């Protein structure tokens, strides 16, 4: 299935955003808390480098609270300021002002040193369509001043909305484009309702969701609709239609209606609420593996948190492997620390050098010995007696030592 809905005019929007970014100090990026990865485009990291960054986990009311917390930690570990918000009812708004001050403290300090007083922080809101940019601006600014609708390039002159606490917001949000190269992204965005239903083939999407739920969360559909999950996905959709009395005239089953019921239930969390976060239900095991592989080990705890509720054995096995990897690294650090026992004991003597004997067997004659003395704070992992190292590891360590 191929979900496509944002053709053309993106180059223009991107150019516009590049211009707008020059005018601002802070980028406020909205992501959908249910699918925070699919609903963001990392191109903004390049466009917005050197700017302060705040990520808002919007629609947090529709996502699982534990997952919200985990995603918050995840993005914080990547250096973003993060606030969870519900732009519709305004929750989380109060916290934003303080976080903005914190995120821009370097700029405020720089202004102070140059004798500039009270220059407002200028910010702009960015995000993909339907993520809630206009709703957020209206709620945050406290009046209906943002234009709704997704038409890039509607701004004529630059309009700034003056907020309290010395913050000014560009009234037109920057529209980012989803990363459609990955098909799953489009499907995920469609599943959470971030792509307007009228341009989607809802029945086809429903069949995809049925397969996904059956494969990853066996029993969820059976429990909700009191049906059997066996058979083809069309048969399951049929069973849902029958269970919910979705009939057209002449007793014909109404698949479109059954699909809508399934999506209403899914989007409001009645089917798989606990798993609606992208971390759990919306990803394949291969995708999660790739995410772990790309992550720094310091991000592992945040990832564990995101996936701890995921009952798939493949995911739990992956977490166990990563924990083992972490433990092994800790043990290695400890081993290196233990090797420094003499250095610590005799550190008052200055540089220390230990020399091993040159083999016990043959009489070697005059012995030439040499040693590499490493800096005192050096912590080169996996350093060991050369006999205990493979040839390739020795080569690798040679480069590290000589660096
Ligand atoms: P955009 O400017 O980024 O394109 O998005 P927009 O504000 O138009 O919001 C898209 C939809 O998301 C709207 O729903 C809006 O109400 C909803 N929304 C925005 N923020 C939140 C939030 O924090 N929580 C929830 N639950 N919904 C949110 P709609 O059905 O398209 O329109 P409407 O009839 O509700 O206005």
Can you characterise this structure?
With 403 residues, the chain is of the alpha/beta class. It contains 16 helices and 7 strands. The protein has helices at residues 10-22, 43-47, 65-77, 93-103, 105-113, 133-141, 183-191, 202-216, 220-225, 233-243, 255-267, 285-294, 300-307, 313-339, 341-345, 391-402, and strands at 26-32, 52-58, 81-84, 121-127, 160-163, 167-170, 174-175. Helix 2 (43-47) links the parallel strand 1 and strand 2. Helix 8 packs across helix 10 (233-243), helix 8 crosses helix 11 (255-267) and helix 10 crosses helix 11 (255-267). Residues 58-59, 61-62, 86-88, 127, 129-135, 148, 150 line the site of guanosine-5',3'-tetraphosphate.
Could you name the key traits of this structure?
seven-stranded mixed β-sheet, 44% helix, 403 residues
């Amino acid at each position: 299935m191929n979900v496509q809905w944002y053709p053309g005019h993106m180059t223009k929007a991107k150019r516009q955003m590049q211009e707008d970014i020059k005018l601002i100090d802070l980028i406020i990026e909205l992501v959908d808390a249910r699918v925070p990865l699919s609903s963001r485009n990392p191109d903004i990291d390049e466009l917005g480098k050197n700017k302060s960054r705040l990520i808002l986990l919007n629609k947090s009311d529709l996502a699982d609270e534990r997952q919200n917390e985990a995603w918050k930690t995840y993005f914080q570990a990547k250096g973003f300021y993060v606030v969870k918000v519900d732009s519709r009812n305004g929750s989380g708004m109060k916290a934003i002002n303080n976080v903005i001050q914190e995120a821009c403290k370097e700029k405020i300090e720089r202004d102070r040193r140059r004798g500039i007083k009270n220059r407002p922080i200028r910010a702009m809101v960015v995000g993909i369509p339907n993520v809630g940019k206009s709703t957020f601006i209206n709620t945050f600014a406290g009046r209906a001043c943002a234009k709704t609708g997704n038409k890039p390039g509607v701004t004529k002159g630059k309009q700034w909305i003056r907020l309290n606490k010395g913050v000014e917001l560009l009234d037109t949000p920057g529209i980012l484009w989803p990363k459609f190269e990955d098909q799953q992204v489009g499907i995920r965005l469609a599943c959470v309702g971030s792509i307007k239903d009228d341009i989607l083939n809802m029945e086809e999407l429903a069949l995809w969701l049925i397969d996904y739920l059956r494969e990853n969360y066996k029993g969820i559909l059976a429990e909700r609709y009191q049906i059997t999950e066996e058979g083809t996905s069309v048969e399951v959709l049929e069973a849902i239609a029958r269970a919910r009395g979705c009939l057209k005239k002449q007793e014909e089953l109404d698949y479109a209606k059954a699909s809508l019921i399934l999506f209403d239930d899914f989007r409001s969390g009645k089917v798989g609420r606990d798993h609606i976060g992208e971390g759990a239900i919306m990803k394949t095991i291969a995708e999660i593996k790739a995410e772990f592989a790309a992550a720094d080990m310091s991000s592992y705890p945040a990832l564990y948190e995101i996936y701890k509720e995921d009952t798939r054995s493949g995911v739990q096995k992956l977490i166990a492997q990563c924990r083992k990897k972490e433990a092994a690294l800790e043990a290695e650090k400890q081993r290196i620390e233990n090797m420094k026992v003499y250095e610590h004991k005799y550190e008052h003597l200055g540089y220390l050098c230990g020399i091993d004997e040159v083999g016990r067997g043959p009489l070697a004659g005059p012995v030439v010995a040499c040693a590499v003395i490493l800096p005192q704070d050096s912590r080169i992992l996996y350093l060991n007696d050369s006999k205990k190292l493979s040839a390739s590891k020795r080569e690798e360590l040679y480069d590290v030592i000589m660096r």
